Amino acid sequence: MTNDLLTVTGLRKSFGGVLATDELNLCVRKGEIHAIIGPNGAGKTTLIRQLTGEIKQDHGHITFAGGNIDKCSIPARCHKGLARTFQITSLFQDFTVLQNVVLAVQAQAGHSFRFWKNVNNDKSLTDPARQYLTRVGLETKEHVLVSALSHGEQRQLEIAVALASKPKMLLMDEPMAGMSVEDSWKLVDTLKVLKDQQNTILLIEHDMDVVFALADRISVLVYGRIIATGTAAEIKHDPEVRMAYLGDEGGLDACG
């Protein structure tokens, strides 16, 4: 029985004369953190947008959780358990941390949004919301307004909100972008906890230290094609990967 949660086969997308994804093949296993790395313009964000359904591939197939999702809308893919974080923030800045997660719990449970009712005393909503906050390390911040959180803490909250939808896979596109070094490593610790809990994460990240600290497997995307997939050690010593990174042999070795 296959352990693949996401399978991409022959994915192709062009914009005019530019091939953004070129017969791309990818498999992500259940319970792993799988990182996608590559030079600027390699097609990483285009790949994510095809997975979420934001743009339609010209050719190829996407299978998720055992079913073909080629024709599924963005909401349908979310309903199937594919959640993207760090896109355009969906946090309510004037709500508390807890209230933001409570709203996500309500949505997942199919409840109407009871904006005019004080939900702070509804334990069926607040108890699971607090559990998600604990998982991302924000349990002491539940009564803080989102607008008062640091950039890194807002990223942690976005993960809690995403987890409240009970996704089968989290898609994370450059989660460390714009973060301080301290906040980046706090987020790494959060993702390590999720990794220990066997959450499946597809991570696009340019920070190689972060990638090598987190990823079970790494795929290297160059000119729309996956040229190598393997562990951090395998990727570091792959000659084609070294060539793709302009022969900077010290660069990969310096990353852990």
Strand runs, count: 10
User: The CATH topology of the largest domain, please?
Assistant: Rossmann fold
CATH architecture title of the largest domain: 3-Layer(aba) Sandwich
Count of all domains: 2
CATH class categorisation of the largest domain: Alpha Beta
Please bin the fraction of helical residues.
Answer: 25-40%
Note the gap between the termini: 34 Å
Low-confidence stretches: none
Calculate the mean pLDDT score and round it: 88
What form results from the Cα inertia axes? globular
Strand order of the biggest β-sheet: 6-7-8-3-9-10
Proportion of beta-strand residues: 15-25%
Q: Which H/E pattern describes the elements?
A: EEEHEEHEHHHEHEHEEHHH
Oligomer: single chain
Largest sheet: 6 strands, mixed
**Rg value:** 19 Å
The total of helices stands at: 10
Briefly note the structural class of the backbone.
alpha/beta
**Would you identify the CATH H-level superfamily of the largest domain?**
P-loop containing nucleotide triphosphate hydrolases
Brief descriptors of the model:
single chain, 256 residues, alpha/beta, Rossmann fold, 2 domains, six-stranded mixed β-sheet, four-stranded antiparallel β-sheet, 10 helices
Secondary structure topology:
Layout: E1 4-15, E2 18-29, E3 33-37, H1 44-52, E4 59-64, E5 67-68, H2 74-79, E6 82-85, H3 97-109, H4 123-135, H5 151-164, E7 169-173, H6 181-196, E8 201-204, H7 208-214, E9 217-222, E10 225-230, H8 232-236, H9 239-244, H10 249-253
Parallel strand pairs: 3-8, 3-9, 6-7, 7-8
Antiparallel strand pairs: 1-2, 1-4, 4-5, 9-10
